[in-house]
Amino acid sequence: MSGSGPRRRASAEIPDLVRSRDLVGYGRDAPDVSWPGGARVAVNLVLVYEEGSEYSVLWGDDRNDGWGEYADPGVGPPQRDRGTESHYEYGSRAGVWRLARIFDEFELPVTVSAAAVALELNPGVPAWIRERGHDLLGHGWRWIEPWTLSREEEAEHLRLAVETFERVLGERPVGWNSRSWPSENTRELLVEEGGFIYDSEGCGDDLPYYEVCLGRPFLVVPYSKTHNDARYLVNPGFSSPRDFLDTLTMGLDELVAEAPLRPSMMTVAVHARWSGQPARARAIRLFLEHARSRPEVCFMRRADIARWWLARCPPRQRA
């Protein structure tokens, strides 16, 4: 006998909840929407900043967050994991600034996906965001898995996040992206709270799309777990910065090859503590040099992608 889970009787009936999933999307007929300047591929650079907001006994949590790059689970409560703490501190002390220097050198717009507490703990980062005109993608009050929270707790974390962003950055986010995955309540809470024009909780397309929430369409600007340096942590994943570079350049080249028939967007997500390491940062630099050489490509902030799409492809144009 194979498998250990409960068996379900075969049935020709497809459950309504299965049918409610959108497995069709744009299909063969993607909207023919060009990006600014006639570009056909919009690249969004996402700098993920979480340092200091991770799980830790210092916060009263029942665990210390892991480093992510080693199988060793690290030090458990009630002790602090000072070694892992220093890895996060590298991201906030050195890594974020190495990436910032590269982005400044190329004069490119960036979306900073930040936990609110992380920005509060390092005032230089929100100052850089304001100085350079980058946009904010809300990434939680702390870097906590939302599906572990009750609906009331998640709503309170959302309220605290917006309040903190407004205080330390001078603005609130118009988009949201949870740690790893959202809970079943996340999108409804965003709609109920108001002020959000999109979320990035889905990875379901190469173009923005709409999901129905509380009876009305809500824009999703898709994220990427593929063009993401988190793959340094998984197996199989990136064993060398060249693996990430190859993935990014080959991915972009294919999108450009498709561009005459189908526009697209490409999210490139990098974390301060991972891609802020020198060799890995070099991969980002080389990718940006390559992307800048392609006339079909433009770089856009995530909020600008959302507004561009809302204006040119509103939900009423799709069945």
Offer a concise description of the structure.
This protein is α/β, with parallel strands linked by helices.
The CATH superfamily appears as: Glycoside hydrolase/deacetylase
CATH architecture: Alpha-Beta Barrel
Integer count of domains = 1
Number of strands: 8
> Main β-sheet: number of strands, strand sense, barrel status?
5 strands, parallel
Average pLDDT = 93
Order of helices and strands: HEHEHHEHHEEEHEHEH
> What name is given to the CATH topology?
TIM Barrel
Put simply, the count of helices is 9
Which parts are unreliable, with pLDDT below 50 for 5 consecutive residues or more? none
What do you see in this structure?
The chain has one domain: Alpha-Beta Barrel (TIM Barrel). The protein has helices spanning 16-19, 82-106, 116-121, 124-132, 151-168, 186-193, 241-258, 278-292, 302-312, and strands at residues 41-49, 110-114, 135-138, 198-199, 209-213, 216-220, 264-271, 297-299. The protein is an alpha/beta fold and 319 residues long. Helices cover 36% and strands 13% of the residues. Helix 7 (241-258) packs parallel to helix 8. The strands form 2 sheets. Strands 1, 2, 3, 7 and 8 form a 5-stranded parallel beta sheet that branches.
